[in-house]
Specification:
The structure is a single chain. The protein has helices at residues 2-24, 172-181; strands at 36-38, 54-63, 74-80, 86-89, 109-117, 124-130, 137-144, 149-154, 164-168. With 183 residues, it is α+β, with helices and mostly antiparallel strands. The protein has one domain: Lipoxygenase-1 (Sandwich), CATH 2.60.60.20. The longest helix has 23 residues, at 2-24. 30% of the residues are buried. This is Peroxidase ATP17a-like protein. Residues 1-22 form the signal peptide. Keywords: Oxidoreductase, Peroxidase, Signal.
Length: 183
């Protein structure tokens, strides 16, 4: 009988430890910032009435002169239009996606050629920085190659670590939808 009670007690203790440990883990929601926050990496979305095609873009990212000389931070970006057509790039600093050997140096301007869903007038853009160097963007310009239009989003403030920050310049009725979809 003692062995059976010992086994039951051990099982109870292990179950209790598992319950306590799992209740302590969870996600941390970033605090509000001057830039609009988005707390999760988005999945590309498309308006059902528009044909889903692949379009190419040139992204020009200007690094601030207040940024560290070099960075090892990982940089992600997503942008889209009023119809919720969206291009998501979780890590734009991967060497295969850039046109220069070293991206995001202090006072530099880097151009990335990317492909994704067709966006019809970029009206929102978010960046994410993961790392400890404190990379500091000055601005991001999206060139929509299909129509020759460009859209510039000025940052000029440091990005917090591990949080999406950006701008939504879509008409008000659509901006609420974009913000709600990524919160």
């Amino acid at each position: 009988m003692d062995i059976q009670n010992t086994v039951l007690a051990m099982f109870f203790i292990l179950s209790l430890q598992t319950l306590v440990l799992s209740s302590q883990s969870g996600s941390i929601t970033p605090k509000p910032h001057q830039l609009l926050p988005s707390v999760a990496f988005p999945k590309a979305q498309h308006h059902e009435n528009l044909q889903q095609r692949v379009c190419s873009y040139a992204l020009t990212i200007k690094t601030s002169c207040s940024s560290p000389k070099r960075t090892r931070d990982y940089i992600g970006i997503y942008f889209g239009d009023v119809h919720k057509n969206e291009v998501s790039i979780p890590r734009i600093d991967v060497p295969a996606s850039r046109s220069t050997s070293r991206a995001f140096e202090q006072c530099s301007r880097d151009t990335f050629n990317v492909q994704g869903s067709c966006v019809y007038g970029t009206c929102y853009l978010y960046l994410r920085r993961d790392g400890y160097d404190g990379w500091f963007p000055e601005s991001v310009t999206v060139y929509e190659n299909k129509n020759g239009r460009s859209y510039t989003f000025g940052y000029g403030v440091p990005l917090p670590n591990a949080a999406w920050r950006g701008f939504t310049h879509c008409p008000k009725y659509a901006a609420a939808k974009v913000k709600n979809d990524h919160s």
